[in-house]
Amino acid sequence: MSKNKKLLLIDGNSVSFRAFFAMHNVLDKFVNGDGIHTNALYAFNNMLEIILKDEKPTHTLVAFDAGKTTFRTKMFDEYKGTRDKTPQELMEQLPLIQEMLNYRGIKTYQLPDYEADDIIGTMAHKAQLDDMDVTIITGDRDLTQLATDKITVKVNVKGVTETESYTPEHVKEKLGLTPKQIIDMKGLMGDASDHYPGVEKVGEKTAIKLLNQYGSVEGIYEHVDEMKKSKLKEHLINDKDKAFLSKKLATIDLDAPVSLNLSDLEYQGDNQEQLLQFYQKMNFRTFLDRMDVPQDSAEDLKEIKVQALDEAAIEKIVQSDKVHTLIVEGFGNNYHIDPIVGLLISDGTDFYGTVDFAILENEKLKAWLSDSTKEKYLFDNKATVALLHRYGCDLSGVTFDMLLVAYLLDTNDNKQDIGLVAKNYNINLPSEEEFYGKGVKKAVPEDENVLLNFLAQKAKVIFDLKDKMMAELKDNDQDSLYDEIELPLSNVLAEMEIKGITVEVPKLKEMENTFATKLSEIEQKIYQEAGKEFNINSPKQLGVVLFEDLKLPVIKKTKTGYSTSVDVLEKLKDKSPVVQMVLDYRQISKIQSTYVVGLQKFVQPDNKIHTIYLQTLTQTGRLSSIEPNLQNIPIRIDEGKQIRKAFVPQHKDWEIFSADYSQVELRVLAHISGDEHMQEAFNEDYDIHAHTAMRIFGLDSTDEVTPNMRRQAKATNFGIVYGISDYGLSQNIGISRKQAAAFIESYFEQYPGVKKYMDDIVKYARENGYVETIMHRRRYLPDIHSKNFNVRNFAQRTAMNTPIQGSAADIIKVAMINMQKMLEKEKLQANLLLQVHDEMIFEAPKSEIPTLEKLVPSVMDSAVRLDVPLKVETAHGKTWYEAK
DNA sequence: GTGCTCACG
DNA sequence: ACGTACGTGAGCACC
Fold it and tell me: Which CATH number fits domain A505-606: 3.40.50.450, 3.90.1300.10, 1.10.3720.10, 1.20.1060.10?
């Protein structure tokens, strides 16, 4: 009857579930005035707005599951038996979601004894008979069996705002099956998450193969007798009943006793008034903003009156006892060189701003900035300190750095953007990109009032969110991580960056010439061998030469062609002389472009490189270093290591001094796992890798350990820290997967505490949604609940690794802060210049080296108290090269 | 802008 | 059966 009618069907339970876990990391931020969590509600509504806009349905229905028992549990009482309980924080939101849907003019429905799937199947079927187009939105793939020419099934991917569309063509492309055959596939393979069995040893691959041959479960069993004798045939025969039962369980009912007519589903559109009240009750600012209704002006950020930051204003500021928020706005991402564009100071009531930096020469303002009794809030202390330093100002008295707090609360808030943080709290402040534009359009607004108003908005947001964020920090037991580690560290890092490390450019120039000659030599040889000239740096062109012209065997492929990575080339070394040449070329070319040439671009007129440490980026709590990255200067191969000869102390008669923690991650593991054998090894200061080798190879003494055994044990220790898999270990040390699995088993037998830690931490992550370090640094792991095997496994390995890597990061951060204090206290001239995850690099007068050799290890090994000792090794020399 | 490769811990 | 080591940044080719 109607070509242009369109029905939108949503699986309420599965989408709510996904919405909940997609925003699980912000669970505590989304709480309304009544203490009810609203994260799933928020994400669900966000998705709904996008879907309604895209689909423009005329009819809508959201189906929910009615209860625990269904006709399926009657057929098979373990159906969905082992499924985790729905979290309480989600349970309380389900009625709210239904309420909101009502206000949005969308019908909701549930039916005793039936799942949402069956309601959707039935209504989709009805609508199809009526010639309507149907779109189904769901969080899980079970519904894809419903796809037809008229019915499209869209499955949420990555959260809920993106979907993957399943049409019959798409199913064919992905699986090589028709949608209906998905039921047969599930019958054969079963479903782990719904907890019903299929045929033993039959997974997706086998199921698809069988169905391509025989069409359906019925078809398979008609021909099962004709199959060749095989394990598969045996399993099929043994599990015939299971296959048919599972197929039934997997089949969505298209004729459930649903008491709805299509006309009941007509989309009504929003009830503005009720929806408005509802959003207000839920504190949904973003949605209120979109509703285009007048708002409470007290909360409105749109216009803030900014007064001039002049001498009169400064007088008021310095006289005041109030806390002030300070915005020093840089433009560009390198605050060591890019310009400052604006300055704003506010006590929350008055906002004083200027774009004229002569004001920073004002002595009263200078004194106020450096006065530690004058309390200040800001966003990004390190950047602010660095910017002000360039104008001869010191900064002190900062107690709230919103950047650091946001990152500690959730390591995913690592975009260094105040607008993005504000959005997490439902406050509509433009992001840097939204305000300044991006790409070629990126620019400071011509009208300075526009800019100052933006800065005022930032200041206001900082005031508005400070209490809430600090309270969250306390709830998470992270206040001392912030007060005692991250905030003091930001000052230490600022000092290190500002100080910079001296580089001898002539030394780099000299290397550049040497390597250039070497490169062109190898280049010519490669061309000769290959019989043609080509770009060796192009993996594509290189692939053609190696695998087509020279016909070398293809070991690995990438998405786009042949892989030419080191591990592939290593295996092809003896097949053709050109392979070794390419390896040599690659090595030198990397050193040349990234380091010899690359680093020179960063040397400033003071002959120094000033890197930027990102303190709020990594998921584990480590630092990272950019522009340039000084944490990956070559050391493993000698040609590369030469680069370090260009890094020198800033004065004659000074030296570079370095100190690193020995096996800090394994010591952390020994501590947090409490494993007796591993702790003993460290307490007795044994060679840990040899000791591990002795244990896993069942030897009586470390004297029997061969170098190869030690090497393998070392790799296993690393693997353990990374959240081991037999495959990963086998690849790394070139043994079979079986052998690797045996190593791991033996390892866990010898170190049962480690095994227990691995099991417990994954369980902890599942129950709490996050893991934490010894200093309570948190990392949320929503993927721990993923249905996807790979995604879930990755999250599990992360759960194992993060507390280890993160605690090691905590430890060195404490050591850096203590070290800086100690240098000051002892009035040493030595400067802390660099940090490379487990080591600190200093420059110091030669005369101070003996002092440092005692002092630095003692500060580092006493940074925290673990159940095993920390061990520190030091070295020094004229250049960084010699300090190792 | 994305993918590949490779430098570090 | 699935396809894997953990955490980063930068240069180059190619679209």
Answer: 1.20.1060.10
